[in-house]
Amino acid sequence: MSMSTDEIWRALATERTSLADLLAELPESAWNVESLCAGWRVRDVVAHLILATRATLGWILVNLPRAGFNIARGNHDTAVRLADRVDTAQLLAEFRATVPSRFTPIGTTPADRLMDTLVHGQDIAIPLGITREMPVAAVRTALIRVWEAGAQFRIHERLSGFRLEATDTDWSTGDGPIIRGTSGALLLLATGRAAAYPLLTGPGAAALTAG
Fold it and tell me: Which one in 53, 120, 172, 185 has a CA-CA gap of 20 to 30 Å to 61?
């Protein structure tokens, strides 16, 4: 069963709160560890999540040309500038202040914001050796959204010819050799995180990792 828009926003507030609590427990050194996103420190990922609640059309029109109209570069560069401009305590405070935000940048949806926070929470936690559980209903909603916006993650290029089956909820897609995993593992796979590979089973998983 799909989550309503209000349920998505409430799930996002919960994720932001729990991630802020996790960040509050980290030593200063952990904030400079590289996340699962190459070239992004933990503090840069946090800054990106903050900026996602501020990316008005005016903000985009200022910062996108500055990045040569490359969205990925713009996301990275603006995050690094914020992360370098403020200290860790302020960065954490600014992130915690985003908890109630229901802002969506142009061209995105509430489900995008939920997906972004779920995945980036893992980008932070996994390199630090922290197990961060993801609520299944929220992850299922994020998976559905990722498949709707598949081009952003090159899903059809990377995963066509496979069938993905979640082991903890009623979600599946595709045809071909089966890749099984929790919805969380499949979300990491769908968004291009190699950290998902050890969490997957099935003949499709073996073929995927071999390729």
Answer: 120
How far, in whole angstroms, is CA 199 from its chain's centroid?
A: 17
Tokens of 167: 């082991």
Q: State the pTM of this model.
A: 0.92
In this predicted structure, what is the pLDDT of residue 150? Answer: 73
Instruction: Give the residue from 178, 202, 176, 199 showing the smallest Cα distance to 189.
Output: 199
Predicted pLDDT of residue 1: 65
* CA distance linking residue 63 with residue 85, whole number of Å: 16
How far apart are the C-alpha atoms of 17 and 187, rounded to whole Å?
21
Question: Three-state SS string across the chain, please?
Answer: CCCCHHHHHHHHHHHHHHHHHHHHCCCHHHHHCECCCCCCEHHHHHHHHHHCCCCCHHHHHHHHHHCCCCHHHHHHHHHHHHHHHCCHHHHHHHHHCCCCCCCCCCCCCHHHHHHHHHHHHHHHHHHHCCCCCCCHHHHHHHHHHHHHCHHHHCHHHHHCCCEEEECCCCCEECCCCEEEECHHHHHHHHCCCHHHHHHCECHHHHHHHHC
Distance CA 19, CA 118 (A): 9
| Residue (of 12, 6, 18, 22) closest to 100 by Cα position | 12
